[in-house]
Amino acid sequence: MSVLNRIKSGTSVLLTLGTVAGTAAPMLAPAPSFAQTAFSDVNNNYWAKDFIQDLSERGIIKGFPDGSFRPDAPVTRAEFAAMVRYVKKAKTRAAVRFADVPSNFWASGAIAEAYEMGWMSGYPGNVFRPTQQIPRVQVVVALNNGMGYEPTCNFQDVLSYYSDAGEIQSYAVQSVAAATEKQLVVSYPNPKSLKPNKSATRAEVAAFIYQTLVSTNQARAINSPYIAKIDVSESVAVKIPSGATIPVEYTKGKILLGPNDKSPITLTVASDITGNNGQVLIPEGSKVNGELRSTASGVQFVAQELSIINGSRVPLAATSQLITRKETVTKGVNVGNLVKNTALGAAAAAAIAGVTGDRAIATEEVLGGAGIGTLIGVFLGRDKVDLYAVNPDTDLDLQLDSELVVGTTSTGICSAR
User: Pairing relation of β-strands 342-344 and 254-257?
Assistant: First the structure.
């Protein structure tokens, strides 16, 4: 019998997800000044430990005052709203007031935000049912539909992965298939058992949300045997066109380079780069490896590789503008003030040491840790030297010199593993 014939029919349900009745849930409490990353009831061997720890560090989930996490406790729709609103996503619609969510309800603000961002909706009759425990299938559908993912494979082929596919209600089959393709679904102890109508636990919701972050390149993939995975035969590249700008930042406030400096340096992507559909293609915090190169005409950063937060690395052809600004270093300058919060190319460090006579420039200030001893002699006896001065906040934003392929969107025929 085909998967389609085994799918149970059912009245369409407008999605929403969960909380524990009545009391203030721990996940909506004000964020502490530090992230609790270890819980008394989540040991190192617990199946969802890595998912829970990462989301705790990000402030998306929180523990209880007694130091526990209660991973097996069921999650209500209000609790889910309190968690999912912290996943980066633009608001797509105006908030509504639900008849069963009074303004003084502990999660009223979270529910409004989750609705505005498109994660959750209400039920007929303008009710939200905030204290209702959420089935796993509703969590999956909410996350998938909030991201706007569509199945690219025959959904029957995808759902044949699950031994209990026949328990999935008809309204959810397309979304579950798309979520499975995107590896949003996590099931312990058997990834091929979806358990669609079982109430989702705090640990399970943490795993689902973490996988959603992975799908948008906002988190590094965790190697877990409990993630549902299917084989996809074809893929279509996701590309960023030549000429696009990538904003970057650097840990130091200034960089000085001398003539013919060629200094390795790693920059950090300063904000998310998104596609037309709002999907994050290059997340904030990704790294750009390359070189700062100085010539007689100026300094330019030349990118070589992009290291995305999810762990993938891709060649990157991009350059900064040409920087021609110079700063004069004189014999009597205070070297300590000069190099404060400043990175130095090897030639610049040698020039400063040669002109000022200060040979104690810290090697950690020199880009790439290059030795400067053999270069100092070139500058001995000079009263001053002109060095290129780079302001990372304004000078180093990158422009793509060629099209950049950063990911893939699955298409074609999928099969269960």
Answer: parallel
Question: How far is Cα 339 from Cα 95, in angstroms, rounded to an integer?
Answer: 52
* Cα distance between residue 340 and residue 370, in whole Å: 19
Q: What pLDDT, in 10s, does the model give residues 121-151? A: 999 999 999 999 999 999 999 999 999 999 8
pLDDT digits (tens, 9 = 90+) for 49-93: 999 999 999 989 989 999 999 999 999 999 999 999 888 788 999
> What is the Cα–Cα distance from 414 to 417, expressed in whole angstroms?
10
CA torsion through residues 114, 120, 125, 130, sign: negative
Q: How many CB atoms lie within 10 A of CB 5?
A: 8
pLDDT digits 0-9 by tens, 268-294: 999 988 877 677 788 889 999 999 999
Q: Is this structure's pTM higher than 0.70?
A: no
Please provide residue 209's backbone torsions phi and psi, each rounded to the nearest 5 degrees: -65, -40
Burial of residue 326 (CB within 10 Å: 0-12, 13-18, 19+) is middle
Q: Above 80 in pLDDT, residue 200?
A: yes
Under DSSP, is residue 141 helix (H, G, I), strand (E, B) or coil? helix
Q: Are 172 and 192 in contact (CB under 8 A)?
A: no
**CB-neighbour burial class of residue 176 (10 A; exposed 0-12, middle 13-18, buried 19+):** buried
- With beta carbons less than 8 A apart as the criterion, state whether 280 and 217 touch: yes
* Pick from 139, 143, 135, 140: nearest CA to 197: 135
φ, ψ of residue 271 in degrees (nearest 5): -155, 160
Helices 136-147 and 202-215: angle between axes, nearest 10 degrees: 20
